[in-house]
Amino acid sequence: MDSKLQNLIGWILLLAGLAAIFWSVYSSYNIFTARAPAPEIFKVEREIQTFGGTGKIPATQAELQKEIEKLISEQLKGLLPADTLPKLLNLISWSFFAGILILAGAQTSGLGIKMISR
User: Fold this and answer.
1) Domain coordinates of the chain in residue numbers?
2) pLDDT of residue 22
């Protein structure tokens, strides 16, 4: 291959790899500082619950158990908002994707450096 063409391709690969690295770091910075939302990979569909509060005292053990489960689930929703887990999973998946982009950019830049130095 011609030396000038190899040198040009090397520079293109080096710049493309650096661009991938800087874009992923910049996007990650914007996501983790809440300037941009994380890509939504995991979504939770909200259920609309209707509570049929009859005001009656549960007559059986099974009804009492269901009422206790409802109360506990309501209390847990107050402690941990419903959208916390999907947001955490979306941030983790973005982190994996950004890591893959950084690794690919480093490999591409490394290949470009090898082509330039020959």
Assistant:
1) 3-40+59-117
2) 97
